[in-house]
Design brief:
The structure is a homodimer. Chain A is α/β, with parallel strands linked by helices. Chain A folds into three domains: 189 residues, FAD/NAD(P)-binding domain (3-Layer(bba) Sandwich); 123 residues, 3-Layer(bba) Sandwich (FAD/NAD(P)-binding domain); 118 residues, Enolase-like, domain 1 (2-Layer Sandwich). Chain A contains 16 helices and 23 strands. In chain A, strand 14 and strand 15 form a beta hairpin. In chain A, helix 1 packs across helix 6 and helix 4 crosses helix 8. The N and C termini of chain A lie far apart (64 Å). Chains A and B meet through helix 1, helix 2, helix 4, helix 5 and helix 6 of A and helix 1, helix 2, helix 4, helix 5 and helix 6 of B. Chains A, B: GO terms for molecular function: 2-oxopropyl-CoM reductase (carboxylating) activity; dihydrolipoyl dehydrogenase (NADH) activity; flavin adenine dinucleotide binding. Chains A, B: Keywords: FAD, Flavoprotein, NAD, Oxidoreductase. Chains A, B: Its cofactor is FAD.
Chain lengths: 517, 517
Amino acid sequence: MDVWGDCLTIEKWQHFVAETLESGNSTPVFNINPNDTREFDAIFLGGGAAGRFGAAYLRALGGRVLILDRWPFLGGSCPHQACVPHHLFSDCAAQLMLERTFSGKLWFQNLNDKIVSIKDIVELFRTGRTGPHAVMNFQSKEQLGLEFVLNAEFEIIDAHTVQVGDRKFHVKNLVLALGAKPFVPDIPGATLKGVFTSQTLVENLDFEPGNTIVVIGGGKSAIEYGCFFNATGRRTIVVARNQVMPMLKDAESRAYAILMMEEQGMEFFENAEVMEIQGDAQGKVRSVSIKTSDGIIDIDTDFVFMGLGEQANSEIIAQKLGLETSDKGFIKVNRHMQTSVPHVYAVGDVTGPPMEMFKARKEGVCAAKNIMGQASEYKTADYPDFMHTHYEACWLGLSEEEARQRYANVKIMKLPPDNPNGLDVGLPAGDRMMLYLMAKPRMSGFQKLILDGDTRKILGATHIGYGAKDGFQYLNYLVKKGLTIDDLADMDELFISPSYFIQLCRLRAGDPHFNDM
Amino acid sequence: MDVWGDCLTIEKWQHFVAETLESGNSTPVFNINPNDTREFDAIFLGGGAAGRFGAAYLRALGGRVLILDRWPFLGGSCPHQACVPHHLFSDCAAQLMLERTFSGKLWFQNLNDKIVSIKDIVELFRTGRTGPHAVMNFQSKEQLGLEFVLNAEFEIIDAHTVQVGDRKFHVKNLVLALGAKPFVPDIPGATLKGVFTSQTLVENLDFEPGNTIVVIGGGKSAIEYGCFFNATGRRTIVVARNQVMPMLKDAESRAYAILMMEEQGMEFFENAEVMEIQGDAQGKVRSVSIKTSDGIIDIDTDFVFMGLGEQANSEIIAQKLGLETSDKGFIKVNRHMQTSVPHVYAVGDVTGPPMEMFKARKEGVCAAKNIMGQASEYKTADYPDFMHTHYEACWLGLSEEEARQRYANVKIMKLPPDNPNGLDVGLPAGDRMMLYLMAKPRMSGFQKLILDGDTRKILGATHIGYGAKDGFQYLNYLVKKGLTIDDLADMDELFISPSYFIQLCRLRAGDPHFNDM
């Protein structure tokens, strides 16, 4: 199928993607300009975050670029199996927590002891995901003018040749943007029916999970999906080899996040390990054995979720090209995104953590620049971060503990303030938090700004609540440029702003030796 | 009652405020340091946004300051009658729109044709508002060390003397931070029972409104409260003398916001006027006569909401001190916040629009600086703005139309993209938007970045959705400093970020002559 020159509407793309996924039709879609006689400066293998952004940037720089992807859409695993379903599930978790908190009050229905269907939500996602797929195909083709082959099984012949069907593409550079997939550990029973990762959950779930769910892992994916399962009304047991939520380093913020999860009924085993998943005669999960500091515990369940990080989609190709990989299988690259083989670059999740959108996209851009002769280096540093519990948790810069190790005169501004009533006080507030503020103030969030009292600079910030995620992107950029309490005090807040940083700073900024707040 | 030296917990304050409001007890609460023999540098009359922030700043600068407030709490009308109830009602509107959209689907209850109690939500607010009040009293006393008299009827003797009961306070400067209250026009029937402003709604509502509500006004308050009434399931008719939502100048963004309201069933009369509110024999609202371009229409209703802006709480004091006021009654000040009378300043809503939190607080700070000898000027300019519909609408900088008038090479980046399917496509997405994205994509928001293709600078931005309000504060600060497409492309986005500005810019930034997106 050749689509160059046809303007495919978003609607047409949506039908095409839906049908192709449904039918398993393996006909590639070629969108290649027959009138452009230039050799490709690069082929991006994989059109996900790293590949699509890298290709767009390379074309913007004036180069010629081709994307090959095995899926019938561009955008990669994010809209298909990763960020988008995660956000849908986290939205459901937030919504369900609210409905459960107000169950039977005001206009809210009674959800007490009611279990909500996970399968229905997964099926909604499977139907709905073709919408974003279609937009990205439209944007890539009509707005960005990208050339691509979708729904394509490709074979790498060598570092300058890739084959799709009977068509061979010669190219100056290869960029491997192959992505990653959830890691499944070698636990007995890991392949039983009823064991899921974030990927297989949305692809394979075909039964309604029972009342108990075991989540393996303590990191982002484990907690994000665990909170969703919990919010559906199921007993949810999180088994973490070490700590839960270790990435949120500010101890007080982390404690608030965990306390709120516990108050929703989440159960945590830290420093624990799943020994075995037992199956029944039909090969379905029946129970899980967990080794805890108090001995081995058996939990009856038909649903186990593995949230244990990612492994690279690199094996065959790395071997074929003779690329150096890390002991975990990630493709090694230098700061120019070059692999150990000349003219072969790698970008995105396939090069290893952090498995974040900005990192994948910026690595794609970095490779594009280098290929086009603009010497460029990239390495993640000082980036903002977030994850979902039932809330959005955001953080940037240093934790209070890290700040106190490095600075002599650390100042803290936070809400709620330290006080004898702890969390049961009516601030902070913000959009999506107002019902909690009025009736259940301990649930209305926690936020903290960490400052250096000497230079007056912001050192770090955390926010557990809603509506600050977007702001943390811009705030982080400002903090890296040396933002001070005085700069913040001078901004114009949009009140009630989810983060209270501007106003808290303004209350103190007049003082050359300002105190905590 | 004298509380200096007692540490009052937030809990104690909450009980005190609740009891005082309930009982109408008029005993003032004195929190004045008996050991400080200095004369007050200033008395702030009114401890709302302007007064409390001004006083805190003045004290931070080393001055001595006293706040007098007639209410038993600091913080002013915002937490008591204005921003906080508005945010509660807007949160309910967003929540109810979601529940109605998914009525009977997934776990959602069937809300079709069901009317939700406004009175219950108002009562929840009346109980809950003492929480924020208590935090602000605690913060002001224990953290900021402010001196104040609450629950105080005060009399101004002259520009240097104020009296509370039998105590006279001598002071170098007076700062009038008296606030404003909703304007009620002189329409026949405006004093009938059933006619409310944002203020009287939360104070006086004692019946459940019927099925039809008439909202007078087309500005922020009218639309914000109107969307809430609509979301409760009532027919809601907005009567605007001119345009609806004129402050959102970007035509395309405004059209999206209005379309979404119309799809929720809101009815708008623009260029229309309420002629008369008719009452029944008991003095309750019975119907409203509206003059439209098609003639006069009568609407049966028992509930009319006036959302027509604010008038200053200035009359008596302005007269007493002989202050110059505007024809609308706002106290005239220069850029130092000085009134026409020496040593008398005015700050906040009492000086006129914009009635925004940052403006009130920064005027308070400006007065404090000048009083303490730090020459300071303040005038609002280039501030970000927002309002609620069922969504959060944010904007900053120029609209597309304004930009095209001033710049020759305007570029636009937006979501959803222009395309033959209009809004029925699956992007943007973001927190709180995921269910819409999956099942009702036209409801998942609209956003737009306006750029100068020559200098590459951001000229403006708009966002109709959720979760971008906090970010617009920081983004506006950056835009005023000359933020470019290249700066944005270099930031680290927290994906799925409610605003897509970083990633849209990155897709284009490589091109010296980038196109629309």
